[in-house]
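Key idea: predict the complex, not the pieces.
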Amino acid sequence: MLNLIPNFLMQAESDKLGSAFTPGLPNTPKTFWLPEGASTIASEIDWIFNFINYINYFFFFLVVSIMLYFVWKYRQKGRDVYARGPSHHLMLELGWTILPTIIVVVIFFMGFRGFIDMRVPPANSYQIDVTAQRFAWSFKYPNGAVSNDLFVPAGQPVKLIMRSEDVLHSLFIRDFRVKQDVVPGRFATLWFQADQPTEGDKFHWVFCTEFCGTGHSLMNSKCFVLPEADFKEWETEQARWLDKIPAEELYFKAGPKLFARCASCHTLDGKLGTGPSWGNYDGTGNVWERNQVGTSRKVDGGKALSDFIGPGKQYETPEGYLRASILNPGEHLSDPYGNAMPTFRGQITDKGIDALIGFMKHLDEFDAKGVWLKAPPAAAATDPAKPAVK
Amino acid sequence: MTTLDARPISTPAPDNYLTHTRGLMSWVFTLDHKRIGVMYLFAVLSSFFVGGVMALLVRTKLLFPGEVSWMTADQYNKAFTLHGAIMVFLVIIPSVPAALGNFIMPIMLGAKDVAFPRLNLFSFYLWVLGAICAVWSLLAGGFDTGWTFYTPYSTQFSAGGTIPVLVGVFILGFSSIFTGLNFIVTIHKLRPPGMTWFRMPLFLWAIYATAIIQVLATPVLGITVALLVIERSFNIGIFDPSMGGDPVLFQHFFWFYSHPAVYIMVLPGMGIISDIIAVHSHRHIFGFRFIAFSSIAIAVFSFLVWGHHMFTSGQSPLMNVLFSAITFSVAIPSAVKVFNWLATLYKGSISLNTPMLYGLSFIFLFTIGGLTGIPLAVISTDIHLHDTYFVVAHFHYVMMGSALIAMIGGLHHWWPKMFGVMYSEFWGRIGCALVFVGFNITFFSQFMLGSQGMPRRYYQYQPEFQIYHHISTGGSYIMGLGFVITAIYLIHSLFAGKKAPANPWGGASLEWQCSSPPPHDNFATTPRVGDCYDFSAVRWDEKEQGYVVDTEAHIASANSGKGH
Amino acid sequence: MSNASSTTAPHADAHAHDAHGEHAKYPFLAHHFDTPFQQFDSAKLGMWVFLATEVLFFGALFVMYAVMRFKDPYVFSFASQYLDTIMGGINTCVLILSSLTMAVGVRAAQTNKKGLLSICLALTLAGAIGFLVIKYFEYTHKFHLNLKWGQAFYQPVTPEEAAQAKVIIDPADAPILAMVAPDPSLGAASSSAIASSASTVMPPLDRSSVAVPGAGPDGLASKTMLITADTPKHIEHSDLPHLLDPALPPGVHRFFAIYYIMTGLHGIHVVIGVGVIGWLLMVSLRGGFNSNYYTPVDLVGLYWHVVDLVWIFLFPLFYLIH
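Result:
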């Protein structure tokens, strides 16, 4: 059975990892069937899978070789042949009814045991709240830290408590062999324990496997396993990173990082995504310019932005409108977009909104991917090395 | 009864169902099951073409891991949804029962028509109406829910054509129900004297088992999609979690139909294969009763296993375990069938005609499809494989590799009977080989993709998966070429094919005893029934260029029990 | 009683007879049947199979009812008091009586009593139409009281209620934490940890993608919000707008959604019944049925009994549970 005690001996080699990663390089598959397992339950599941596979190989080759042999041996010779084979044989038929029955009963019990192990989380699990929204995952840690990528401590059982804001999603970490649908209106849980920290640029993919719309295939995150001490440090750092940035540096330090969460729907280069581009499209100017002069596409099926923004109107300033658009996006809809954007209330602080609005105001200082063009060379070299987190 | 043999049974009748009446109206308002079958066949194959083009578009997109300029994510989602919905609801479900079954079933049974010819025609026009709804849906903006229509996506977010397609599915459901109803009554009530249950060909057993599922499962689908339409239109809160509803309830309802629907698709295929293998091995089917009862067993079990589609959706662990256990029970009758087919080959006299090649392909592909179902039925391994390409590959092996390949095999088997012409045997074998090879390349690579963790319904994917996608797409082109060749030689045979004898393969069931194509009323007199798997009275006749059945010897052999 | 058909149908042993003779004798015999008995039997089996699909059709809805009622039984027992038991009871009697007249009609057709058949069909038709009329009054009454499905249920109807409802439906006041059920798989030890994490896991109130219902659905308001100190305890339900009912539990709209769907689908079947019984009546008045040919009467009779049977289940499940 499983080792339920967190393995505190797993802290070696933590130094060379630090907290810096270079995500993006693909893990290339080295295996024929299942990818390399990285959780404590993976080996058990792989064993069952391989066991079934060998049974399958046996029966497949048995059936096909018998078939081919018979086809060759009893091929038709001449037109006028009536073949006189046996039409039934009770013992034989009972045999090949009962034998598969026994085999599947055995397989069932093996799978059943593995399933029980997967479903029961150990009592001392580290809990992470997961929010699924079209089309991104958001992970919230007990100390209040929030990230787009999943960071977990090594050698400790981790329990994810998941909910969905909109439609069905499914969280799948293939290297851990775990998957759970996230049904709106219900809490879903899932647990795993990864003993081996991820090294260097390695990570484990987190996929959404329940179809959720246009950006379904982009709804994936990375899972980093950190040694326990590193994880504690990262967690503390992550909870406070926004607070430590001075106000004037917010837009280029925090803006692009926060934008990573928006990028699954909004582009910077004027291409239309699931939501309106923040860049210049149809000559209407970028998102800040549109809010300034109100030359957007139609809003609410006929009005212009200028009907809402300005002294004495619903929003005194463009900033107020943008803030409302993040916290209450369904209120005014820009043609031809529907009410697709989730609210970010409770997920982003005022300082984060300030950073995003600053980012919009200085969009010309960024390239299409959100990289700050005015960065000094040294800073540019180190900055992207950090995982895009919020 | 003794006056029956005045006219030799194999002499072609001067009048057949194609020439009985003429003109477009004689087809539009026909009540002849054979003409309705042919119209179904044409309609189903046309839909198969459209669904196939969608599949090739999807596969071509998947050559590239990133975005492509000629197909956006939304278009991709609509393409694979359309592919799935067309193939399931418009092609595979009606393909064997409604198209081939309509044509062959009453003749095999020795009946003049199905029990309710008007209802039969009505079913066909319901099918047409359902297809029109699919087109309407495309005009209304298409639909991108996947063929499973999972809510809340389908009720709140999906594209504008969702309601039309749900209406279409509702209508198609009734088309399917009425076909099943018709067939149940036909098999019960229109059997001629002597056609006992255990003299019925296995194809009819399979059609009968299928009809039971159609009649009992499809109403649930109908009410489910109706509820979905109501939910989407009026937001009543049955499935919407923000209104206190339960999306998982929808999944239960949907799979309560859609899992049995898998057997609606594959059971008739198994029936076809039983007949093809016996006829082309020229020997009695091995273990008739085991095969027949395994069909019924599959039909019964199929109602009890729907929960295995929801192992990861948050149903209680106890239910997962129960559904996993019951799921294995389906494996047993399936295995029984495969072993019985193998035993039928034993000591046979196997002719490798095109239908037989499809039959052997079926055994190969169905074995893979069935065996790969085992890791999906085991809960702990299914958790990893669920909603990945492994599942995609598995159900393509079952639905396409088994159900559709059987349908194509049956089409080749009965083509001479249906249209009275022979197709090119050479090109038939080439086509079959291309389809077989292409199919395996396309979908076996997807087993690897899936176990590596590639989720299904992904527009963009990680570059590490690209190699498998390249193999898969290459295979799909080969398969497409195979189908194009098949279409060409089949159509060519209609105009320039050699005239078919009444019995080109040496079958002993009733359909081979009427002329090719069959006359309007199938049989001038009530046919006499022997053992349809007893080939001892079947002889090759040079003059006919086909086989003839010595009826007296055939009946005598059946009555003495020697044929076994 | 339908078994009587097998004895009255002619030539039950007609297999050996010459088929063409049978066709000449019975003009209604279709070409692919050998005997009228075979044709009648096929039609009857077909009808039974069709009724099996009808049972499955309604069966799915009864399952939905069971799931919803099991989930929150108090919603059903509360909402059921708004249904008019007297009207429902009258409707039940009307349907049962129409079933009786239908059955007598089938017997009349079998025994060649053409006048009685027409009278029975007319009575059955009257019953069916009467059922629909009563149902119409029930529906309009409920619409008037705003007992509707979905969000429409929460639209206030009177100014008094609107003033109250404004307070009720402001989601910012909803005590969401009270609605969080602890995860049973965690055990007692970690329940406090869950309680602290619950506030972060609950869906935000003003989720943008889904319109917020006025009040009532899970997690958006509790019945405590709806109790005001000076609201008198209700005596007669129709005296009081339902939103002000102090016992109103969240999610009552679901009861009415299911009510309208199930009784509505049943009503559609009654409408179809009116159509086919009307057609039977017309044919019968023209003398189209006799003891040799009465298949349509028999089949419609079966259909009508099943429609009644469904109502026999619907009536107690909706009207008699509070």
